[in-house]
Amino acid sequence: MSEAKKLDSQRREMPKQPAHIRRRNFQEVALGYSEELALGEAARCLQCKKPFCIEGCPVEIDIPAFIGKIKERNFSAAIRVLKEKNCLPAICGRVCPQEEQCEKLCVLNKKGAAVAIGRLERFAAEWEAVQDRIELPKIQPATGKKIAVVGSGPAGITVAGDLILLGHEVTMFEALHEPGGVLTYGIPEFRLPKAVVRREINYIQKLGVKIVTSYVVGKITTLDRLLEKFDVLFIGTGAGLPWFMNVPGENLNGIYSANEYLTRMNLMSGFNYPRSATPIKKHLRVAVVGGGNVAMDCARTAKRLGADEVNIVYRRSRNELPARLEEVENAEEEGIIFQMLTLPTRLIGNSDGWLKEIECLRMKLGEADQSGRRKPVPIEGSEFILPMDACIVAIGNSPNPLIPKTTPDLEIGKQGTIIVDEKTGKTSKDRVWAGGDIVTGAATVILAMGAGRIAARSMHEYLAKS
User: Fold this and answer.
1) Architecture of domain 146-240+398-465
2) What residues contact 223, with CB distance under 8 A and at least 6 apart?
3) In this structure, which CATH number among 1.20.140.10, 3.50.50.60, 3.30.2350.10, 3.40.50.620 belongs to the domain 244-395?
């Protein structure tokens, strides 16, 4: 039999809610693989002797091994393999850009379509969730060492999960009233249900991690005071300071940062009002400025809240959109309008101080800039007006300056990020490590987890010698 006949190039699609139904609710869009679909997809894996997919995984999961266990119908073994490296498989299986990482390096990419690694990871995690008992891994004998983790997002959770297994005592400090960081306040319910986030966090608590919420490090206490009680400390506070466009009219009513908008929806359950305590004004014509996953999340949220028209306003073309293709396609299916090669230049209000129009310029693409994408250039005389009563700015974030301002001996970069040794995550301050968006600026969940893994390994080496 020829190699072409042996290979299965048909990737199993994941069922999802029809667009005309899902755009009216906040239930999860993607419905996950059935056992039959998972077994069919797992059978496509070639079990390569040199698995390039592992090289593309920031947290080093043995991908062929867990897929092989699914193929054998040994789902408990599959989840064990996953959790050797990843304490958040149900989350990563939903929101990680596998198409740019592990799946990108799958050899089947050249033969049709990569194995759906992320969907299989989600399947294994969901299988575990419905079992009567969650299997906990073996924890090493107690070392007596105490670790503080500031921030309970993906990087902090990974550090905590790795170090608790090595016998260290770990306490995690979260500024908000619910742990999870961006997983809780930044990703909509229809893409990542809060019940899934709570389940994953409950898992690390079962391992022994202590979580202290409503505790703002930099206000209630400082890093130096924490270091009086803990042997080492990890900073994983993310990038929660929103960027704005700095155009006239940005202080009008009806202008939101993506952070505010999504936090009100997600952490505060604004989408459930009046059953929740958080009201949100119903807007009829909404513009979302930006082209990343956060912009897609905001636009799709606005549509679900009843907006008649929702526009993505992006200064480059569709080919340059930084959002995942899957999210762009979902947004298009749900009726989101894409205003490409468009730059807002002025926000115009009515006599009551509410946004009523956005003045924009048409753009064209010039030479590539430092990002490798072609730079947008304004077309002279191309001004036009978009009638809008809300504008959500989703163009990026910087780290909150609270910790840097209260820690003078912590070396900080130009954008307010913490400078670390890339190989270890070690900061300029003794006994302090950092990772995730606080170091890189806004990035992906899995890259933050990868940084957490690097830092945890270095912290353990330090503790073993001290």
Assistant:
1) 3-Layer(bba) Sandwich (3.50)
2) 150, 217, 233, 235, 403, 406, 407, 410, 429, 432
3) 3.50.50.60
What's the rounded Cα separation, in Å, for the pair 454 and 456? Answer: 6
What's the pLDDT tens digit per position in 333-385? 999 999 999 999 999 999 999 999 999 999 999 998 887 888 999 999 999 99
pTM: 0.94
